[in-house]
Amino acid sequence: MGDSGKKRLTAAVVGLGNIGFRYDLDSGPGRIFSHAKAYREHPGFELVGGVDIDEKKRADFERHTGVKAYPSFDALMKSGGRAADCVSICTPTRLHLSSLKEVHPSRAALILMEKPLAYSLDEAREMLNLSQNNYKIAVNYIRRWDPGIIGAKKTIDGGSLGPPASAQCWYSKGLFNYASHAIDLFHYFFGPERETLFIRDKGIGAEDPHLDFLLRFESFDACFQASSDEFLRLLEIDMLFERGRVKILDNGWKIQLFRARGSGDRNNGRVLEEEDLPAGQDMDRYQYNVMDGIYRSLLDGAPLASDGQSAFGTLETCVRIKEQSIRGKA
Q: What are the E-state strand segments in 29-98?
């Protein structure tokens, strides 16, 4: 948690939709799902403005937060208010680049981008080029900042589970929107894959398709299977190791760690027994955890759990799989 005795940084949110603001309209105390509430609740930040072209969204934001909202970031900068040290860009993915260009002239020290960075590598490269020598880019792959996921990575890196043997992921709501969360976690746990293999197109979505595919790592394959229900919210991962298993369930809200126990002889064999994670999950405050990591990075230089480069690697994988699916239909 940020130290309330340290310097307070200012923040603004561009895009006042669900993740920018509305997820917390009825979330209640102790639950923090949006950028706006996370900035307001964190003792190291002060929310100084919101931006959206929609008048109703601006009015809702002002009524619920008591903070002024503007129709453009330029209007916010010209308002005479305090400049933002940190800016969240929560506009739709296809508008990320234009939103960043609008924010670019400001003196922000860090831009927090919603994921994915873009739908194309060219746009993502332009965004990273804009940031060079100007500001840090963080990307809102929220699970990298969760204590439970961090604890699972420490267990995997420690080697006690042995090498990975196989993995499965089930997802919905598109390759870029939802599957990219799981792809990003596989990169976080194991590094980039050595090969991708498209399997099947479920026929849902053009810009963000529902595809079955493989990520091929050095010692194992991760099989991704998409739901054909476009309204279902699903993200689950099951990773089998030589001496254990890690399951990420309920869209990341639940993690289970299993370790192989027993003699290992032919008569008795081994069984997988569940044990506690090194650290408990905190997904009810997932956005707060992201803002806390950003705060530490800005004040103390701590590395960002998810930055422009790591998110670009995730986007490269998504784009490659989509291109393979298009070639497969030709």
A: 45-51, 69-70, 86-89
Same domain, 137 and 194: no
Q: Is residue 160 part of a domain?
A: yes
- Decide if 311 is inside a domain: no
Residues 67 and 187 in one domain: no
The total number of residues written for the chain in this structure: 330
* Dist CA 177 CA 92 (whole Å): 11
The predicted-structure confidence for 180-216, as pLDDT tens digits, reads as follows 999 999 999 999 999 999 999 998 888 999 999 999 9
Q: What is the mean pLDDT of residues 221-245?
A: 95
Q: Whole domain around residue 211: which residue ranges?
A: 147-281
Phi and psi at 204, nearest 5°, equal: -120, 125
CB 91 within 8 A of CB 67: no
Of the candidates 213, 208, 247, the one whose C-alpha atom is nearest the C-alpha of residue 230 is 208
b (16+ CB within 10 A) / e for 224-234: bbbbeeeeeeb
Same domain, 122 and 151: no
Count of domains in the chain?
Answer: 2
Tell me the C-alpha distance between 96 and 67, whole Å: 23
Please name the residues in contact with 56: beta carbons below 8 A apart, sequence gap of 6 or more. none
Q: How far apart are CA 310 and CA 73, in angstroms?
A: 27
